[in-house]
Amino acid sequence: MTATHEPLGISEARSQLGTLVARAVHGHQPTTIRRSNAERAVLISEADYEELLRARRELEAGHVTEAIAAHARGEREMITYDSKEALYADLGLPTPQ
């Protein structure tokens, strides 16, 4: 799933929104939309979004499983965390929104 064209400006994307949504849903083609050089978003289908979420959950579960295994091998000590953010940071994961 890779974008096949340059990012669209927000006005241009707005004028083509129906086509872009159809392309995302039926062709699984993402579209990058830019509001400025620093603000970009990607339009993808709901199915592709759900797949990305599933992959993220699997990755996170793998990190947690490995941390538990490392503790069992004596390679990692048990740590108590004051917050969810601290736990995610220690595991090298982004904090869920």
Automatic annotation (TrEMBL):
Pfam family of the protein (one): PhdYeFM_antitox
Record InterPro entries: Antitoxin_Phd/YefM (IPR006442), YefM-like_sf (IPR036165)
Gene3D superfamilies per the UniProt record, alphabetical: YefM-like domain
Function according to Swiss-Prot or TrEMBL: Antitoxin component of a type II toxin-antitoxin (TA) system.
Family the entry assigns: Belongs to the phD/YefM antitoxin family.
Protein name: Antitoxin
